[in-house]
Amino acid sequence: MGGAWERGRILDGRYQLIEPLAKGGMGMVWRAEHISLRTPVAIKRLEPRRSGRADRLRFRREARTTARIRHPRVVEVMDYSGGPEPYLVLEYLRGETVGARMDRPRPMSRWTIVDLIDQCAEGLEVIHRAGVVHRDLKPENLFFCETGGGDQLKILDFGVAHDGRLSLVPPSPNTVVGTSVYLPPEVLAGEPQTHPRGDLWSLAVIAFECVTGVVPFAGTTPSDVYDSYVLQRAEPRLDDGLHLSASLLAFFERAFAKDVLLRPASPRLFAGAFRQAVAGATRWDRVRPRHSTAPPTKPHWPRSTCS
Ligand SMILES: Nc1ncnc2c1ncn2[C@@H]1O[C@H](COP(=O)(O)OP(=O)(O)O)[C@@H](O)[C@H]1O
Ligand SMILES: [Mg+2]
């Protein structure tokens, strides 16, 4: 064992830690340097308190699944160490997560949002074709990379992905993995089957949040969020003062169908329908910044006020 992870530490004679970048659910992500190549890399460490056998196996599955999907819209894995301190070496991304972008006061333009959804759908097509369901799509797991010619989106974090080729152990029916407000009702209800259109539900939550600044379904625990689906019959929470155009309401109504088969059939179709809905939107209101502390007003579905 090599002691604490701190700036300057060298891992396996190959990578030197430079600075912590972000703390996720599984551990810290560091900016580091590949010593002989002198290139930047990102190193995701499995937190020591999560280094029991099950977590280590899960972490190795994350590495293998991510490595299997090689595509410009998916973060690239460069190396994996399964030693006493497991870590994953990823291409280093410059830029910010979609979550960080949403936190800035200036809202994204409608065409930035359309582009984000298009790029995400492009990645999801490849992911789903590889027999993988991501299961944890959320703004913190999407990264806008700075490039010379416009932002390139990358999908991160296959930590709870379902990989049809690797999953030997079926997910436990009583365990809900992922972040509640982005999870589809079938996952919150503990259904054992993992459906790729679950990822499209999460993408719809992200699209809704980009457009309005609020998440469509409230709740802090899985059961709160599930209650909000059941009590509101899966209709998005719309606050007073937020009026979505009819084309967007129709899009979200379909994307938030409780029956998975009524949702858009593929990421590509999802993105096409979203683009059309945005093009048809006659008004574009954003109620308030993300994470605003203002309490939500009574949920309703103001069809009569749509324009
Ligand atoms: N390759 C990378 N380059 C730069 N930052 C990254 C990279 N991978 C992850 N991050 C940052 O670290 C955060 C956590 O990474 P993630 O893979 O989502 O871990 P967790 O499973 O712990 O959520 C991300 O939200 C992002 O801010
Ligand atoms: Mg994450």
Overall geometry comes to globular
Could you tell me how far the N terminus lies from the C terminus, measured between alpha carbons in angstroms? 63 Å
The assigned CATH architecture of the largest domain is Orthogonal Bundle
CATH H level, superfamily name of the largest domain? Transferase(Phosphotransferase) domain 1
Low-confidence stretches: 293-307
Main sheet specs: 6 strands, antiparallel
N-to-C order of helices and strands = EEEEHEEEHHEEEEHHHHH
Q: Indicate the mean pLDDT.
A: 85
> What structural class do the secondary elements suggest?
alpha+beta
List the strand order in the largest sheet. Answer: 1-2-3-4-6-5
Proportion of strand residues: 15-25%
CATH class category name of the largest domain: Mainly Alpha
Model description:
The chain has 307 residues and is of the alpha+beta class. Helices cover 31% and strands 16% of the residues. The protein folds into 2 domains: 10-91, Phosphorylase Kinase, domain 1 (2-Layer Sandwich), CATH 3.30.200; 95-279, Orthogonal Bundle (Transferase(Phosphotransferase), domain 1), CATH 1.10.510.10. It has helices at residues 53-68, 98-103, 110-129, 185-188, 197-212, 222-231, 246-255, 267-279, and strands at residues 10-11, 15-23, 28-34, 39-45, 77-81, 87-91, 95-97, 132-133, 142-145, 152-155, 162-163. Adenosine-5'-diphosphate binds next to β2, β4 and β6. Adenosine-5'-diphosphate (ADP) binds at residues 21-22, 24-26, 29, 42, 44, 75, 90-93, 97, 140-141, 156-157, 159.
